[in-house]
Each structure stands twice: as structure tokens, then as C-alpha cells.
Design a protein that fits this description.
Number of helices: 8
Mean pLDDT: 89
CATH topology: Rossmann fold
CATH class: Alpha Beta
Strand order of the largest sheet: 1-9-8-7-6-4-5-3-2
Low-confidence stretches: 4-16
Organism: Algoriphagus jejuensis
Shape: globular
Structural class: alpha/beta
Number of strands: 9
Strand content: 15-25%
CATH superfamily: Alpha/Beta hydrolase fold, catalytic domain
Protein name: Alpha/beta hydrolase family protein
GO molecular function, one term: hydrolase activity
Largest sheet: 9 strands, mixed
Keywords: Hydrolase, Signal
Length: 284
């Protein structure tokens, strides 16, 4: 039903051709602004008429589209993986601490609408993608892990596989091992975007948080991988998600391994996510 791993070894680095990364701007009618994204294509893209599967790779809170290209501890990691798996990798930008959802309070926060209705159609129109669920996956780190799980749960028609690295599986900051000032800052931000009347406790988890969507995840049959470092301040939210998936008998891969909420951890985690996701992507 699930596979639980404690990983200590790292995948080998292999030399490949030269992938290409372009920065694009996509206008969001929902929010009335342009948003940047980076699109990495494998070297074969220039010479062939082939269409490619796509991975949407999401950044964390207060991050940007360039994080996965500039902050990883292995330079060129995204390009290497695009080459190795012969796929397109898209890293979009969203607002800080916006969690990839549509705010019920602020018109300026419509990032679910942006990703689902604006960015993905733009990528499929502008690049030679395999524009089908079976050839599209999504994963991300921290806030981006929350985004990947919630977006894929709400839109199973778009994704075949999803992942989370050190994800905020429950946006209830009572579970986070952080100082009081940080906790208050996050709680105030959530109230501004979502209102003050949401519940984050079982059995009435808010559907604005990943743990509130377990029933949808089970029904969707999505291929799912979740991992978190044992020293991460979000480890308890990931263990909570793992328990809920077990209780609902939802198949998933769950990994705990040494590490914290750092770019060293995410640099090591991303190749494992690609190894998992590639098993489910169709290339025709």
C-alpha cells in the first residue's frame, strides 16, 4: 500500500548534453499582472519535433522562479535532470507565503487560477509538450510541496504524479517548531488571505491545507511521493500527512532521511523525485 524509506545514499551525477533555460513572462488576467517562470528544455528539443512530458517544480515561501536554478548546491541540477529524463521542467513564481491557492479575501492572490488556468495552457501552447494528464507531474519544496499536493488533489485531470519535499502539509503553525514571532507572522498572513474561521484540526481540516484533501487524493489515484528531513521544523506535519494517508489506505511513497529545511536537502531530494515521477509519465 505504501513504501517507507530511510535513505542515506545519493544518486550518481552523470554528464549529459546542454539543456537550455529560458525566462518567460506570463500575464495573469485573474490578477492583472505579469509573472515570471523559467522553462528548461533538454538539448534534444532544438533538433527534434518530439513532444515532451512536463514537470512543474514549485518554489517555497518568499522564493521565486529562479530558486531551483540559483540556490541548489549542485549547479545546473535542473538542466541535468531535464537532460537525463528528456523532459521540460517549468519553475513558476508566485507571491510570498501565498501557498498556491486562491484567497477568499484578496483579489491579488489567485495563484491556483494562475497555475491551472493560465500558466499550464500557456506552456502547452508555447512549447512542444504532451498536453495530457498522463505526461504532466508536479512537485515542490516547503510551500511548493503544499502547492503541488493541493493543486494535484483538486485537479486530478491535469496530473499523473505529485510530490512534496519538506512540504507544509498542514498550514496550522501550532505544529511547526518555530519561534513565536515567526508563528504570529504566518498566522496573520493566513488570516489576511483566508479569513479567521478556518479549522486545521481533525476531523474538520480546512481544504485549504493538504491534510484536508486526503479523501480527494485517495479518490484520484495519483502517484504520490512525500519526503522530509528528520531535523526539519515541518517534520510533524509530514508525519501527520503520512498517518492520514495510511489510515485512508492511500498508496504513497513516504521518505524520512537525515536533513533539515535546507537547499542541501532539496538538492539531494529532487533526483529521487524525478526517479519516482518518471515511472508514471507517458511519452506518447
Amino acid at each position: 500500500m505504501f513504501r517507507c524509506f530511510f535513505l542515506f545514499a545519493f544518486l550518481p551525477i552523470v554528464a549529459f548534453g546542454q539543456a537550455k533555460t529560458d525566462t518567460i513572462q506570463v500575464f495573469s488576467p485573474a490578477m492583472g499582472k505579469n509573472l515570471k517562470a523559467a522553462v528548461t528544455t533538454p538539448s534534444s528539443y532544438a533538433a527534434e519535433s518530439t513532444r515532451y512530458p512536463v514537470l512543474y517544480l514549485l518554489h517555497g515561501g518568499s522564493g521565486s522562479f529562479s530558486d531551483w536554478h540559483r540556490k541548489v548546491t549542485e549547479p545546473g541540477l535542473v538542466g541535468r535532470l531535464a537532460e537525463e529524463y528528456d523532459m521540460i521542467i517549468v519553475t513558476p513564481s508566485v507571491g510570498p507565503s501565498s501557498y498556491y491557492y486562491d484567497s477568499q479575501m484578496l483579489d491579488s492572490v489567485r495563484y491556483e487560477t494562475y497555475i491551472i488556468n493560465e500558466l499550464i495552457p500557456h506552456i502547452d501552447k508555447s512549447f512542444r509538450t504532451l498536453a495530457q494528464k498522463e505526461s504532466r507531474a508536479i512537485t515542490g519544496l516547503s510551500m511548493g510541496g503544499h502547492g503541488a499536493i493541493t493543486l494535484s488533489a483538486k485537479h486530478p485531470e491535469l496530473f499523473i504524479a505529485a510530490g512534496s519535499m519538506s512540504g507544509v502539509m498542514n498550514i496550522d503553525t501550532r505544529l511547526w517548531k518555530v519561534n513565536d514571532d515567526f508563528r504570529k507572522l504566518r498566522q496573520d498572513g493566513q488570516k489576511a488571505m483566508l479569513g479567521a474561521d478556518l479549522t486545521y484540526d481533525a476531523p474538520t481540516f480546512s481544504t485549504f491545507t493538504a491534510v484536508g484533501l486526503v479523501s480527494k487524493i485517495k479518490a484520484n489515484g495519483l502517484a504520490l511521493i512525500i519526503d522530509c528531513g528528520v531535523d526539519d521544523f515541518l517534520i510533524e506535519t509530514n508525519r501527520q500527512m503520512h498517518r492520514l494517508l495510511l489510515e485512508s489506505e492511500t498508496p504513497h511513497d513516504y521518505i524520512e532521511r537525515p536533513g533539515a529545511h535546507t537547499w542541501t536537502y532539496w538538492t539531494e531530494a529532487l533526483p529521487f523525485h524525478l526517479l519516482f515521477i518518471d515511472k508514471y509519465l507517458k511519452r506518447d
